[in-house]
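Case study 2.
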Amino acid sequence: MKITVKEAGRADKILASQIADYSRSIISSWLKDGLVTANGAIIKPNHKVKIGDIIEIEIPEIKETHLIAQDIPLDIVYEDDDVAVVYKPQGMVVHPSAGHGDGTLVNALLFHLKNLSGINGEYRPGIVHRIDKDTSGLLMVAKNDKAHENLSEQLRAKTTKREYIALVHGEIEPNKGEIIAPIGRDPKHRQRQAIVGNGRDAVTHFEVMERFDGFSLAKCILETGRTHQIRIHMKYIEHPLAGDPLYGPRNTIEPNAGQFLHAKTLGFKHPTTDEWMEFDSELPVLFIETIKNLRGEI
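Prediction:
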């Protein structure tokens, strides 16, 4: 690709403004990899280009993915050229990893959606954020790199809306609260996260929706999005999630069902139109039946 610079400034910024099909992060990676020249000389992202400079870019070939597109039923709540919102059922892994080579949300996305972003690598196409295997609910999916970069920035800026419903042990007091506690890898258990002094900042807001005998139903609102954040924070205030195999008690309401946690509401600004979009989802059947049972309705 060859272009003529129309405005002076940092190479990565100027090129991103002149090349519509690629995000600034992708262009920066080309610059760092020595694939971009100005007037015949290799340049880096912070190089100052001048009006009239001739830029040549050696765009790398797209690597063929080894993932298999699988015809797995997928509830697509919304879709356009830039973004999709999908409902992930409880029990489905988001992307392939050790022990989960297929049958994941990504395998389903590859079958049902025409395009997916590539920023997060070969095995996480389109994946902007994740929820745990046994957590159900809504996820936003990027269909191109510019949309991915925009949605990721909204997550970093804490301007998205992510509300969860959690069934926890104990009767929470007070009705509302904020949990601020840093999260990092548990030094004693590599499969778990924990509250650690040198962990990443994590903030969860909660609001009690209903109390039962020995349990509470709570709305949890993420300000940050650390791995297992709600599960760890609720355990931290001594109200672990019901059914949680990692952070909850052994004797729980549904020991083999996984944690009762549902990503119910998702809101964000459309990456192209800047329009606010908000989506809501129903609780899984088992979740609803468990609540009815706690109420004494069944």
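The domain at 158-298 is CATH 3.30.2350.10 (Pseudouridine synthase).
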